[in-house]
Amino acid sequence: MRELQEKIRQEGIVLPNNVLKVDSFINHQMDPKLMKKIGEEFAKRFENEGITKILTIESSGIAPAIMTALEFDVPVVFARKRKPLTASDHLYCSSVYSYTKQETNEITVSKDYLLQSDTVLIIDDFLANGQAALGLIDLARQAGAKVAGVGIVIEKSFQEGADLITAKGFRLESLARIESLENGEVSFKTEECV
Ligand code: 5GP
């Protein structure tokens, strides 16, 4: 998605350990017009898939997820990163290791909001090692829901997540695919160069 790539080029900051900081339009301040276009693009790519629900993880997945859900006119469910204080067995639960934060989170979704009858589109802001997306896929699997695919705003293609997800047979659509962050420079996969 050309506009997203331009924004990354203009405002993205490459941090050590292959982390891309996009706080000015995704992870802290947000750009609603760009988010709206992101939602429209996901809706175009996954149209005719019979999506009944968007599934994401708090907190940075929520903005692109809700914009996508608006286009499909379906609800958004976000997995929580902390178990509610009131212990409940009415939850689907999966473990997600975060490479950037070097910690494991138990992610949960209430059984009320993911149903066997659902066809789920998983949305997240970044795809790196794929653990967040695989955790969300696992929650959908526990519910018996169908996963129509995974939509990612920024894929770091040089990390293993994209291969892991496609090798498991899931459709993956990423709006910007980064080939390298070497030497502090963002390089996109060649077919998308602007
Ligand atoms: P994964 O589970 O695929 O390794 O990582 C996905 C999560 O880690 C995303 O939801 C995102 O919050 C965070 N993340 C991974 N890499 C980056 C990065 O380079 N920049 C930012 N801002 N977040 C990242």
From TrEMBL:
* Record-linked Pfam families: Pribosyltran
Q: What is this protein called?
A: Xanthine phosphoribosyltransferase
Write out the GO biological process terms.
purine ribonucleoside salvage; xanthine metabolic process; XMP salvage
InterPro entries per the UniProt record, alphabetical: PRTase-like, PRTase_dom, Pur/Pyrimidine_PRTase, Xanthine_PRibTrfase
Regarding protein family, the annotation reads:
Belongs to the purine/pyrimidine phosphoribosyltransferase family. Xpt subfamily.
**Can the keyword Ribonucleoprotein be found in this entry's annotation?**
no
Instruction: Provide the Gene Ontology terms for cellular component.
Output: cytoplasm
CDD domains xrefs = PRTases_typeI
Q: Which gene encodes it?
A: xpt
Quote the catalytic activity from the record.
XMP + diphosphate = xanthine + 5-phospho-alpha-D-ribose 1-diphosphate
Originating species: Schinkia azotoformans LMG 9581
